[in-house]
Design brief:
The protein is α/β, with parallel strands linked by helices. The chain folds into 2 domains: 199 residues, Isopropylmalate Dehydrogenase; 129 residues, Isopropylmalate Dehydrogenase, CATH 3.40.718.10. The chain contains 12 helices and 14 strands. Helix 11 crosses helix 12. It binds nicotinamide-adenine-dinucleotide. The site of nicotinamide-adenine-dinucleotide has 22 residues, from helix 4.
């Protein structure tokens, strides 16, 4: 059966890294007879320039029709003077996330042993790190009502937000996390603040209920302050972590920095049915765009994640990840991860090396 993949290269280094990911997808498509049909469309600043809209109707129609979306990055100084609602990030990327109801954010923090020196932590603490943080993306305190800044009767200004989750929202993100854990080491740590916040007392209760449906997964709970501490003390203790929007925002950035190399990190945002948009954690890197030096590996690993989580193509995903490992073993590095004694390569040379490793 044909699976439709939509590639949205976007802006800055987006088109450069998207081209490398497409090379890699073409190879596994043929090797595993995946039946992928890969299409491309404009989004972000490129779409504003061509069609006057960061998410043209034609692109949105393709997003809706696709089984999975692979996005490069959007934005850049050229469009920063536009009103906020028309900018590539809000009118392109965030609009797709909202309209497709992509509530489940998967942020792996993986540190290949070969790159352990890039971390600010001691190599033995992080070498071989492989954590997946599952963050709820469309609810919680970032969206809760009422919210605002008001002036009290005594003239003092007060800011307020509402931290709210209903059990259905908790259950659906919990399910994403349990399913992800089933594909990994089957250990899930749910992060909350159930000693203080009622909303996360409910969070914990619902996770416990869900856990009964996944007896193979070892479920544990951790308060968010302890989780932050454990992430920098002994991060390798974790397999999958699941948490709400705000805690996940903070913990996933901390976890990303454990790896020290933003050009290596993929992410996914999933809907209820597992359809998702996959993208590197980094932005469009306008400072290096057009020079052919961007690291395409986050984009290539994002493509592997897409095959695994939205398209059920585990073997092809694992083969891409193994090929990335091989090129790192060979000592090939783009400028962002280069160190003395390794070989500096361009964006396309890195993509070609992954292709060669797939064909070896
Ligand atoms: P950035 O991630 O684009 O760049 C930060 C630094 O990391 C830069 O020095 C850049 O050269 C480097 N870098 C990033 N990716 C790299 C790669 N693959 N290889 C080598 N080096 C890499 O973040 P920024 O500079 O804050 O943002 C630039 C633009 O990207 C802004 O317009 C911002 O809004 C946008 N942005 C988009 C997304 C997205 O599309 N998901 C995410 C973040 C930022």
């Amino acid at each position: 059966m044909t699976k439709n993949v939509l590639v949205l290269p976007g802006d800055g280094i987006g088109p450069e890294i998207a081209a490398e990911a497409r090379k890699v997808l073409d190879v596994v498509n043929a090797q595993f007879d995946l039946g992928l049909s890969v299409d491309e469309a404009l989004v972000g600043g490129a779409a504003i320039d061509a069609a006057g809209d960061a998410l043209p109707a034609e692109t949105w129609a393709k997003c809706e029709a696709a089984d999975a979306i692979l996005l490069g990055a959007v934005g850049g100084p050229k469009w920063d003077t536009l009103p906020p609602n028309e900018r590539p990030e809000k009118a392109g990327l965030l609009k797709i996330r909202a309209q497709l109801d992509l509530f489940g954010n998967l942020r792996p923090a993986i540190l290949s042993p070969q790159l352990a020196d890039a971390s600010s932590l001691k190599p033995e603490v992080v070498a071989g790190l492989d954590i997946l943080i599952v963050r709820e993306l469309t609810g919680g305190i970032y969206f809760g009502e009422p919210r605002g800044i008001r002036t009290l009767e005594n003239g003092v200004r007060q800011g307020y937000n509402t931290y709210v989750y209903d059990e259905d929202e908790i259950r659906r993100i919990g399910r994403v996390a349990f399913e992800a854990a089933m594909k990994r080491d089957k250990r899930l740590c749910s992060v909350d603040k159930a000693n203080v916040l009622e909303v996360t007392m409910l969070w914990r209760e619902v996770m416990e209920e869900l856990g009964k449906e996944y007896p193979e997964v070892e479920l544990s709970h951790m308060y968010v302050d302890n989780a932050a501490m454990q992430l920098v003390r002994a991060p390798k203790q974790f397999d999958v972590m699941v948490t709400g929007n705000m805690f996940g925002d903070i913990l996933s950035d901390a976890a990303a920095m454990l790896t020290g190399s933003i050009g290596m990190l993929p992410s996914a945002s999933l809907d209820q049915n597992g359809k998702g948009m996959y993208e590197p954690c980094h932005g469009s890197a306008p400072d290096i765009a057009g020079q052919g030096i961007a690291n395409p590996l986050a984009m290539i690993i994002s493509a592997a994640m897409m095959l695994r989580h939205s398209l059920g193509m585990e073997d092809a995903a694992a083969k891409i990840e193994a090929a990335v490992d091989t090129v790192l073993d060979q000592g090939l590095r783009t400028g962002d991860i280069w160190s003395e004694g390794t070989q500096k390569v361009s964006t396309s040379e890195m993509g070609d090396a992954v292709v060669a490793a797939l064909n070896a």
